[in-house]
Amino acid sequence: MNIKHRIISALMVILIAAGCATSQPNGNASNGPQGIHKIKHIVIIMQENRSFDSYFGTYPGADGIPMKNGVPTVCSPDPKTGQCVQPYHDPNVVNTGGGHGVGAALTDLDGGKMDKFVEVQRAAVQTYCQHNDDPNCSEGMIGSQPDVMGYHDRREIPNYWAYADNFVLQDHMFEPTASWSLPAHLFMVSEWSAKCASHDPMSCTSEIDKPDSLILGVTPYKVPIYAWTDLTYLLYKNHVSWRYYVAPGTQPDCDEITGPVACTPKPQKATTPEIWNPLPYFDTVHEDNQLGNIQQLDKFYTAANNGILPNVSWVIPNNRTSEHPPSSITVGQTYVTGLINAIMQGPDWSSTAIFLAWDDWGGFYDNVVPPTVDGNGYGLRVPALVISPYARAGYIDHQTLSFDAYLKFIEDDFLGGRRLDPATDGRPDSRPDVRENAPQLGDLKADFNFNQPPRPAVLLPIDPTTDLT
Q1: pTM for the complete prediction?
Q2: Strand partners, 145
Q3: What is the pLDDT of residues 90-129, one digit of tens each?
Q4: What does the buried/exposed string (b/e) look like for 445-457 if buried means 16 or more CB atoms within 10 Å of the residue's CB?
Q5: Does residue 373 contact residue 113 with C-beta atoms inside 8 Å?
Q6: What is the longest distance spanned by two Cα atoms in the chain?
Q7: Got the DSSP string for 318-359?
Q8: What proportion of the chain, given as a percentage, has pLDDT over 70?
Q9: Do the beta carbons of residue 201 and residue 228 sit within 8 Å?
């Protein structure tokens, strides 16, 4: 080796020792976050009451509505007309939907035939319209084409389809339990829906039908006890920041179990425990003095704009922005686009994963039979998307998923894989199993390519052109 080469070699040794040179490619330094840990902010946006087939049943490449030559090969018998109603394109901005409690789910499934959706809607609308002259009871909504068999596509929800084009669409995301909004939200934050006899976590038993008494018509009123362990307990214990953002307005606080498709809304804000905001009733949130982490939606926009998003966020709509029938699809899509644009335009976009889903199927048709996990789930399929600078582009994830996968991803990213497991989490409760470890459950890491450079934002128009009527 000549003197020149010796000098160069010596300089490289000095530079490497000083941290000024590395054998790693640019942007993948060994001392930086790797893999899933490149995600520093997880935002779960939870919308309301749509099935997968009702939003993405005709999306190319997805496991959607069975068709031959563009004509559906499935249908649902209509007890009113004697006809079997096929899925059809629906350009209406407002839908009625159907019953979506435990009983409705079992009827819709019909032992795996997936053919009772119209029957359930007829029964729900008949019950509702006997006591209400709401315009949603018009013949156009409950006529020869019950709208539970209608589907929307790029013409009505162009932004949702654009997110699927550019990021990840999940076509086997199942509601965590075959029930309505409250049990779904309980699973979303705690992996369980239960009823507790006391504030002893061991007194809780599975309850996916009526986990509390905050339901219209249930008397006497009794504040529910949520004594089992929720994810915020582990987050707080491990110094992982979280917020639960609630849009102020109203919420359809009603008995969705027996099937009404609409009901009297009640006020909603961060300080009102409701079916979409169950965390204020969890013992762990009180014991950890974390009630202040349940905040109004304006705080989310401030955090996104200023680059101070917490590690974990849940974002909950109000009735108007939720897409919960009879709320407008257009208003819901505009609201969601605004949330995502705020993240994309903020400093935290390059380290964020957005999980967008709808909490239950809302009575709308879906053709896929849910797998059985335990005595609590799964429920019917719902639309779901992954949006992130590390998300695969135009990828359709066919894995079996549920909201359990969100908690699993959070735990793998921020908690070293620790689970809501009574045997290991330091707060035993009587839950029947550890849902994150179900062998059927897929892994959301498959939706990401952490070796790619962070992708730029895909900003979409807040008010895209649609054919909605």
Answers
A1: 0.90
A2: none
A3: 999 999 999 899 999 999 999 999 999 999 998 887 766 6
A4: eebbeeeeeebeb
A5: no
A6: 97
A7: -TTTS--TTS-HHHHHHHHHHHHHHHHHSTTGGGEEEEEEES
A8: 85
A9: yes
